[in-house]
Write the structure tokens for this entry.
Amino acid sequence: MDKNMQKMELAGDATMEQAYQTYSLLNEEVRRWQDERGSFWMEELSPAETPPYYPLVEFPEMVVLELWKRLNRVIGVLVSESVLRETWNEFKAGQPVSDPELLSCLQIALSGIAHLSRAPLQDQPVEPSYESTVCPVCGEGTALSVLAPPNGKRFLHCNLCGQEWPTTRVGCIRCGSEEASEQNYLNSEEFPGIEVVACEACGQYFKELDLRLLSVADYIWEDVRTLPLNYAAEQWLAEHAKVSGKVQ
């Protein structure tokens, strides 16, 4: 599911500007919902005793459907509740959602609920000893690391709920390999301060943002805006696999 969050699809062939306008409208509706219904739904969310405290797959179905329907209406997607319920169950089971607009609204709804659930935990920072690429709040895997000012301390960032927690300064956040020769950094002058790290050890990649060089107001949109780096990493890994003989 983390890959779905990472590659949020917005409005098919829409231009980036049109996609951003749609994304902004949906987030405005999320904020309205949080103001109107947040306190009610917080009473329905019970944290676990150990991380992850609010796993995405355990979000109450009714809260997901309520916000999802509101977001669908914003962009004119009319789908019955029974279809939404079936789609939500398929999504939890790891099955793909074929409709990009429906998927976009679901992902933004889940992010809005996850941010709501994280609020009571903000004064309880994650223990420094927590070592996992799985978010301690919502249980989603992460594909994003950040280097914080002033000295570049490294954190993992969850694009679903916004939680951050410390991690090792170097190495692949996917498989844990710390072998420098296996890490390949791809960047572009178009996106200063952002690199995609392609790991030869596990054949996966992740994005790293250097917050000493750029300011990020919205991590989800920043991830979407820089998708060309993701595509470059996928192409690089595919070519490397051919050259190394790992694929036919």
